[in-house]
Amino acid sequence: MSNSNSVDASEDVAVRSVNKRYEGLMTIRTKAVKGKGAWYWAHFEPILIRNPETNMPKAVKLKCTLCEAAFSASNPSRTASEHLKRGTCPNFSLMLKPISELPPLASPSSQQNHRKRSSQSQQAVGTSSNAYPMNMVDSFAQIAQAVPSLSPMPPVLSGGKQDLGPLALLEDSVKKLKSPKASSFPALSKEQTDIAFDILADWFYESCGSVLFSSLEHPKFKAFLNQVGLPAVLKREFWNAKLDSKFEEARMDSEARIREAAFFQIASDGWEVKTSANGDRFLVKVMVNLPNGTRVFQKAMYFDGSTLPSEYVEEVLWETVRGTCGNNAQRCVGVITDKYKAKALRNLELQNHWMVNLSCLLQGFFSLIKDFYRELPLFRTVTENCFKIANLINSKPQIRNILHKFRLQGLELPRFIRVPPSKCDISKNVGTFITMLEDILSFSRILHVVVLDDSYKVVCSEDLTAREVADIIQDVGFWNGVEAARSLVKLIMGMAEDIEAERPLVGQCLPLWEELKAKFKEWCSKYNFSEGPIEKIVEKRFRKNYHPAWSAAFILDPLYLVRDPSGKYLPPFKYLTNEQEKDVDKLITRLVSREEAHIALMELMKWRSEGLDPLYAQAVQLKQRDPVTGKMKIANPQSSRLVWETCLKEFKSLGKVAIRLLFLHATSCGIKCNQSLARIFSGQGQSRSGLERAQKLAFVAAHAKLEKGDFSSAEEKDADVFGAMSGEDDMMNEVLADTSSI
């Protein structure tokens, strides 16, 4: 078993390395094609070579787009020299033209004015210019830039150099009047124009406010439209008529999907306060989770003010339920939000016995980080010591001068250590704490050298704080604490990222918490930390977020059936505590009518003793490798619910509970909206029509994102782009370094 696991692990590493290398080469090529990279990428294209048996990537090759030949991707520059420059490629030589065939660079007037001089220079160059192919043009261009211009000195004007710009505009106007040029493209037909504007409108709406509507009236954008043969665009048309049309189309599609579903779950995200320069604001997104795994956007709500009362939130959620369900409120199985679990959601459950209202699992994990920061002494000690080091470096010019001395020797060091703002509650903004730890660790090696420097010893003789900081830096326990604190937060954040990406269902909550607890035990063992305080904090947070539906869904989900010695696949009751077993009984009896309660419990006993047919159980638990991440995932996530609707029809009462529980999502996180969308909402003030327009824009944008399966924000995409554009050399070095591990 261990050997197979090690083989799988090595295969995963190899697949990730190949994918990473391929993505790196594609990024380099994309930049190069846009003019920000080596010339040869215009003729080379990275391709993935897959294993014919497993269909998994096994290598990366470079394909010549001119002759279709494939080469090793280990050194693209050398491949270009050997294949293209040395004439190996039969089609590359056909693209080369002698320089004499290029069009003249000078204007007709300058050729006439300097005909004698140009003819003499052409005679001097003679036939030698014909010997230079196209791939030498760049070199000539660089030389030409270095040589002083032979054009006459600019005229002396009364306004000085400031007159040169208007003079150029005057000459340009004269040229246009002398020889007016037609548009670069013929005017498009009405049908073509409508299609083009329809695509343009889609782009504007899907950008969700990151592209401003005022951009439609920008002179450069108008010039672009004219250049491609399109008429000017009216901003009010995009903000009114076209937006109404797109909204109606998206709304009708969403409502049709909701009508087709027998039941659904409402997910509400965004209740957490987002503080800005304009005050506290909320942009709450409401979505509908359907049993088939798809999601439908319902609406966006904007709140401007302080924290909302729980009673008001309860009213808003119930109005949302009624507005979505119509006359049959029982179609809504439950609500999940990122806040207000203890009051609003619980009250709705008490008033409506069929509802299962959950708090977001992801928010529970994030809250656990806050708990550790508030209650674990390790975090307080590390924070205090890091602040002392950061304040000394950031506030003492003598210390920065010592660091500057090392920078002059070639060491790359940041000038300051980033620290949380003075009024920042770090427990609510752990990102600033992690940033400080990262900066401190990046200084770790050089700080040990700094405290031994003679200049630092002089500072210590005058400053007690400097001596205290020196003791902290030379204390091995401090660095172990910094690494332990960072590792603990990274551990939780890593699992949170997976949860956000995979969007687990409610039946996975208990296994995920157990996985997290196991990782905490490993962390305690690694950093020689007592398990008691960690377990106490984790258990306290677990109880706050726990819902009986976690246990019931875990028992009813065929995905978690366990094979016993006789070959039966039985529900995993042995992994539940006595309290959790009672929770299963209570929840099932609450979700059915009083007449069915005893029948449902009898069926639960039968399910506990007989389980599911082994063949169907194995089919539900079948896994396959995700081609993107390389991880093993359930092949058909809907099969757990479908088994209850088809193969387990004899469990009539219990089956009703199972199919309504198993599709419930454990997270409320949905589409990430741009900050610009929130600004659009806030910019409408109390205007009812303006807010209605903003809601329609949010609806159209969210509907398009869900259709594409794109849940990221524009800010995240820009961050990815700028991260990828950190430099071709760095990217290439990383890509080439990965080849050694394959």
From TrEMBL:
<protein>
    <recommendedName>
        <fullName>DUF7963 domain-containing protein</fullName>
    </recommendedName>
</protein>
<feature type="region of interest" description="Disordered">
    <location>
        <begin position="103"/>
        <end position="127"/>
    </location>
</feature>
<feature type="domain" description="DUF7963">
    <location>
        <begin position="9"/>
        <end position="93"/>
    </location>
</feature>
<dbReference type="InterPro" id="IPR012337">
    <property type="entry name" value="RNaseH-like_sf"/>
</dbReference>
<dbReference type="InterPro" id="IPR058269">
    <property type="entry name" value="DUF7963"/>
</dbReference>
<dbReference type="Pfam" id="PF25908">
    <property type="entry name" value="DUF7963"/>
</dbReference>
